[in-house]
Amino acid sequence: RWVLSLECKGSRNFLSALRRAVEVDFKDKDKHKSQGLYLLTTGIPDQETHTVSAYVAEACRGFGLQLHVCLFSAEKGTDSSGIVPARYANPRETASAFKEIVQAANGRFHWFGEAGIFESDDIASIISEMEKAKNYSQKCAFLVESLKQRS
Question: Exposed end of the chain (fewer CB within 10 Å): N or C?
Fold first, then answer.
């Protein structure tokens, strides 16, 4: 709701934004069956990862909330804002930090860029299910073949 009126600015003050979302938008949590937040970001939060993870774990447990992160890694030199973040990390370190934060929030992590998808919990889950189905199918085919040989 309130996020639609916001304009993009240079801060990555994740804790401030999360506090506002949790304290303002989730006070009517009893009216909803499930709640989730999606963080769309291009960089690491200003605060240290362990601090963010601890707050997220506490906030999410208290509200039955899940935090999902969509990290977009732009190619070098495409940041047109010209704003230097308070904290810098390379894309791999940023992804690692957000994976830790998402685990604390019982959420999902998605990392993509102009080249495509680098990592996605949803896609990993689908691939895992497909592997299970393939293994089951192979076992079934083996059993059928075994039964045919006995006949």
Answer: C
